[in-house]
Design brief:
Elements (H helix, E strand, L loop, with lengths): L1 H13 L4 H6 L27 E8 L7 H16 L3 E7 L5 H13 L5 E4 L4 H10 L5 E4 L9 E6 L1 H15 L4 E8 L2 H17 L4 E8 L10 H13 L4 E5 L4 H10 L3 E6 L2 H4 L8 E7 L1 H13 L6 E5 L6 E3 L10 H12 L11
Parallel strand pairs: 1-2, 1-3, 3-4, 4-5, 5-11, 6-7, 6-8, 8-9, 9-10
Antiparallel strand pairs: 10-12
Protein name: ABC transporter substrate-binding protein
Keywords: Cell membrane, Lipoprotein, Membrane, Signal
InterPro entries: BMP_lipoprotein, Peripla_BP_I, PnrA-like
Length: 359
């Protein structure tokens, strides 16, 4: 079902010549103009006097139970609290070109959406190009600092710091002294997750074995939306002796969880608290998640944009600022929480410097 939605939405975004028809279309897939949470239950949303907001998802889109869903949560909160006049959500497809991403952003800008949020570093070039074409439109991009401009806000995170904490958790919980990392696509951003995870595990047990591999290599970004491949890779790691696996692979993480459940091992989620967002039958295998508060960043940008105070350039959401963290849902890390919080305090205080690169 997700793949069908992706295909349909990618086709919509590419149809630049059908701008007005696309901008006016309804439905839950590529247009979000529904009532705010709580409608019909006694609570009322603010009057729709705010801006028209466009949001362009990365591969996987709303429903990936991870990165994109965190961005969607920020948008949903803005709908409920800021009285947005209208919203439109468009999704990316596997294997699409930068030109397709540019056209998606251009579609939103030409349709009067302002501000526009691009979710994911893959939009770096397209955001920089389209933002120069529409200097009066405010753009934000999540996970990228390279796209700079007077109307571009960069929402970036210290993923390595949050990953250190779950790496420490993995080492503390591993019974085989062997853990693993599954990355979606081998990029500098995902390398940050691996670097932090490895550093955290080795801070606890210097001799621990840490396996790491990636599902695809650029320009192939399908590794963020290939659960079958995620499952196969995780099965290989489990067969090789790992008993805790951390993924930073977007929608492919569901396959990792399936493999972990079958092996009666432990998994670590990413971006969202996946013990809440993953498929119900898989939630129990997720002992913790590295929470990356994309929802907070998206909401804060939209709030600032609505007030006319959105600033250009990077805003960094690190551990000290509460931008990353680890989850405790399910109680599986309650027995090691004091140790994890000790690491958390030391990183925030600058006593521990977490590497942002594996080499």
């Amino acid at each position: 079902m997700l793949q069908n939605r992706l295909g349909k939405l990618a086709a919509t975004a590419l149809a630049g010549s059908m701008l007005m028809g696309a901008a006016a279309c309804g439905g839950s897939d590529d247009s979000a103009t529904t009532a705010s949470p709580g409608a019909g239950t006694g609570s009322a949303a603010p009057a729709a006097t705010g801006p028209k907001v466009g949001l362009a998802y990365d591969i996987g889109g709303r429903g990936d139970q991870s990165f994109n869903d965190a961005a969607a949560a920020g948008l949903d909160k803005a709908k409920a609290e800021l009285g947005l006049a209208d919203t439109k959500e468009l999704e990316a497809g596997n294997g699409e070109t930068e030109a397709a991403k540019e056209e998606r952003l251009r579609l939103l800008a030409q349709g009067g959406f302002n501000p526009i949020i691009a979710v994911g570093f893959a939009y770096s070039g397209p955001v920089k190009k389209v933002a120069t074409e529409f200097p009066d439109v405010k753009f934000a991009i999540v996970d990228d600092e390279a796209a700079q401009g007077p109307n571009i806000s960069n929402l970036v995170f210290a993923e390595h710091e949050g990953s250190f904490l779950v790496g420490a958790a993995a080492a503390l919980k591993s019974e085989k002294n062997h853990v693993a990392f599954v990355g979606g696509v081998r990029t500098p951003l995902i390398d940050k997750f691996q670097a932090g995870f490895t550093a955290g595990a080795k801070a606890v047990k210097p001799d621990i074995k840490v396996d790491a591999d990636y599902l695809s290599e650029p320009p192939d970004f399908s590794g963020f939306n290939d659960p079958a491949k995620g499952k196969t890779m995780a099965e290989g790691m489990l067969d090789g002796g790992a008993d805790v696996i951390y993924h930073a692979a977007g929608g492919s993480g569901g396959g990792v969880f399936e493999a972990v459940k079958a092996a009666n091992a432990k998994a670590i989620g990413v971006d969202s608290d996946q013990a809440k967002t993953a498929a119900p039958e898989l939630q129990s295998v997720i002992m913790t998640s590295m929470i990356k508060k994309v929802d907070v960043a998206v909401f804060e940008f939209l709030k600032a944009a609505a007030a006319g105070s959105a600033k250009a350039g990077p805003t960094v959401y690190d551990l000290k600022a509460g931008g990353v963290d680890y989850s405790t849902t399910g109680g599986q890390v309650d027995d090691i929480k004091a140790k994890l919080d000790e690491y958390k305090q030391k990183i925030s205080a600058g006593e521990i410097t977490v590497p942002a690169k594996t080499s």
